[in-house]
């Protein structure tokens, strides 16, 4: 006796919504990163490097991690008098 495979190829309700939500989140994150880079010191160079290479060098990544850490620990002001 053969089993019917009438459900083959059908997705459960809401399965496509998850993919759409991930796409929306990725687009939102991309926009947010671009906005931050446009406002940060060295951000223009980082965006140019990414456009040119389609990736970031290890040195550029480390620089941004270090700057983020310093700003988080000490604030964004240039000097403390």
Automatic annotation (TrEMBL):
Name of the protein described by the UniProt record = Uncharacterized protein
Q: Where is the composition biased (Polar residues)?
A: 1-10
Ranges for the region named Disordered are 1-27
Species source reads: Alosa alosa (allis shad)
Note the superkingdom of the native organism.
Eukaryota
